[in-house]
Amino acid sequence: MDPRGLPQLSEWVMGEEAGGYHLQGFMSANVAVAEAVALADLYWPEFVEYRDCVFLGFRFDQRGVDEWHDRLPGDPRAVEAVVNHVHLWDYFVLASDPEYAALPGLAERIAAMWRAAARAAFPDRRFDVVVSDGSGDYGPTLSMTGI
Fold it and tell me: Model-level pTM?
């Protein structure tokens, strides 16, 4: 992902010879620890095991999961797909076309982190993390299920 097209980062972009934007300068001026912790939860989630399923911790609600199990009896992967379905538009406020354009790449990077986090948490299980560019949905979307 190239940050040079994002308006909020434009003042932090340095010349090509400097290697792009200055991450430390941008973050120390714009990102509070609470924001970083919240982003860490999205990027490297905790997981909840419940009823033979694995759920993203930030999406897990026991009552809601129980309702989905009732609606989709005998199909735990379908329950995971519904609960572990994340629209990035619900997590980020987009103010410009370059920000909209950056979301599909961000979704791919988040998916890679979810895969790694799931492998680290459950080395004996396999997971499928799917990324949709949002053309047929509500913006760039990620979903995670067991295989």
Answer: 0.89
